Amino acid sequence: MFHKILVAIDQSPLGEIIFGKALGIAKALEAELMILHVLSADEAGSPQMPVSATGLRSSLTMEAAVFDVYQKQWQEYEEQGLGFLRSHVQIATDAGVKTEFTQTPGYPGRVICELAQNWQADLIVVGRRGTSSLNELFLGSVSNYVLHHAPCEILTVHAPKA
């Protein structure tokens, strides 16, 4: 059935639910698990590139200082992501599941599909937050992108209703 399961998670409560589902399936089927975290400016808690408040008169020194702060925040975000992934690998390993992880920047849908192809995943487990159709039309949806571009089967975990 499924031998290689790719689970894409972020640091949200839904990410924990998605991980739990993927881990349960991997354990039951004795499958390998790949945990993916995509570094994205769209993820809650990710650093945002500051917009200059000084307009046309901004000094290059000030802009460089602002960018340095942003770079430090991004590095902290990356380090938090790695710690998050390592803790989930430990949970999966303790459950007896062979587990790897990767973290990469990019557009989540595209990164998920490319990794699934390269790692030869049999199943992708992703979440769906349940944004409105209008939001999906203008902002896009990671789960919708994966649904239309994935090279394998997909399990979509819906966010609990509030």
UniProtKB/TrEMBL annotation:
Q: Which residues form the UspA domain?
A: 1-158
Per its UniProt record, what Gene3D superfamilies does this chain match?
HUPs
| UniProt record similarity statement | Belongs to the universal stress protein A family.
Q: What is this protein called?
A: Universal stress protein
